[in-house]
Amino acid sequence: MGRLFVLLLALSLLSPDLVDLNSADEWTLQTLPGIGPVKASSIILYRETFGPFLTLGDLEYVSGIGPGTLESIRESVTLGTPSGGISDTSHWMPIADSLIPLLTVSFLDVGQGDAILLEAKGGETWLFDGGPDAGGPLEAAVVHRLNELGVDTIDVVAFSHPHADHIGGLPSVMRKFTVLEVWDPGMDYSSYIYEDLLEEVLKQGCDYALMEEFQLRQLSSVVTAEIVSLGERGVDLDLNESSALLMVRCGDFSVLLTGDMEEKSERTMTLQASPVTVLKVPHHGSLSSIFPPYLRTLRPQFAVFSAGRNNSFGHPHPAVIEVYSDLGAEILR
Q1: Within 13 Å of residue 136, how many CA atoms lie on the same side as its CB?
Q2: Which DSSP string do the residues of 60-95 spell out, in sequence order?
Q3: pTM for this prediction
């Protein structure tokens, strides 16, 4: 009997039960290698805040857990069967050609940068971000793209943040087109391009306003644009993280324009996020801008990557493209 007891004990030590990360309590989590009280508490806080872990890789987004810890516990854990899973696709729309579009959203090819044109039928035309300046005597790419689309008047020029790849082309836009109003996210930031833009606003005498969070504008009777986030404000800002986010809606259709927001902002936005039809992928597809719970909540039908060919930043990162592909989004570049 004694030998049998020793044998059973040995087998139990060799074949421990896997720890379910989605249901284990704090004490059980601490039986895992490298997981003490602080990390165990962080794991529980994460899943209570953002929902269950859907992949083991999600664990790396928990405070204090890195690749080394993940590898050390990989063979000791399971994810069980989380309830809910990835959000459904009931908000996705059927693909059909419309002879009378109520809203046209054009993601302009401006190289390494962002520039999005919004045209509401019978209503306003907006330009959100303006891509980079071409430099020297050359005209900014955004000017060429707007000319190709037959634009002459822009009701509102708005921008997510004053980095050069988002506002570099806007001074040229101010000079070449009739701009009625400029919306500025109001960041404490100094650059010659930003100053050039503000000087052009003064020269043209158009209306100028600082954005306000949850500011809503009617582009037409059926199209709205809302500033859904302004991030943090003050000195020493991380401009990417403080990007202004613009949500545009037309009936059941929605498009979220995200500037260069990164993981910290995505965490903050997760609990108030809602599904969207089209997502302008944050920060040109940077690896620093993927927070799985946020992207699963948005669950975009289309993911638009705006990045220049052969850019020096390696945007979009292949791992980011894979994340959106796994969500079932159609990738547009």
Answers
A1: 1
A2: GGSTT--HHHHHHHGGGEE----SS-S---TT----
A3: 0.89
